[in-house]
Specification:
Layout lengths: L2 E6 L4 H13 L3 E4 L8 H13 L5 E6 L3 H7 L7 E3 L3 H11 L3 E5 L1 E3 L4 E3 L2 H13 L6 H12 L1
Parallel strand pairs: 1-2, 1-3, 3-5, 4-5
Antiparallel strand pairs: 6-7
Length: 151
């Protein structure tokens, strides 16, 4: 089983706790970040990203209201390939083709114009796709080398 670091902001805490319980039942080692009032998603994402970069975690799951902010932060780090998945297929192909090592989820967010919704069932399906899919290698390795040269 894998070592997984889950980081979240105040909007992602409930989903993070739910995923932690499920992943631990499946036998994964789970480390959790913390969130406090006034924290920024940027600050909360960094320990998880560093855990993956320093090989203290195999993968990370980042959760904020929309998922967008944490995805932007994660992809700023060399060696991190983060996918902001809204469907299991996106997580699956990100693992198979990009060797993604960070999954980002939007837990939910509303304003007067738009809303982001993520059910716990769908989040679990996305996480399972992310954790059970394997990198294909081959032609995808060449593409990843090209991406790494951009940083």
């Amino acid at each position: 089983m894998e070592k997984i670091f889950i980081a979240f902001d105040h909007r992602g805490e409930s989903l993070a706790q739910h995923l932690k319980q499920i992943l631990e039942k499946e036998g994964h080692g789970v480390s959790m970040g913390e969130s406090h009032d006034g924290d920024d998603y940027v600050d909360n994402a960094i320990p998880a990203i560093q855990a993956v970069k320093n090989k203290k975690a195999d993968r990370a799951i980042l959760i904020c209201g929309t998922g967008v902010g944490m995805a932007i932060v994660a992809n700023r780090f060399e060696g991190v390939f983060a996918v902001h998945a809204k469907e299991p297929a996106e997580a699956h192909f990100a693992r198979m083709h990009e060797n993604a090592n960070v999954l980002v989820l939007g837990a939910g967010y509303d304003d007067d114009k738009f809303s982001v919704k993520m059910s716990k069932q769908k989040a679990v399906a996305i996480v399972n796709a992310f954790l059970t899919s394997e990198f294909e290698g081959g032609r995808h390795e060449r593409r990843i080398r090209k991406v790494n040269k951009l940083k």
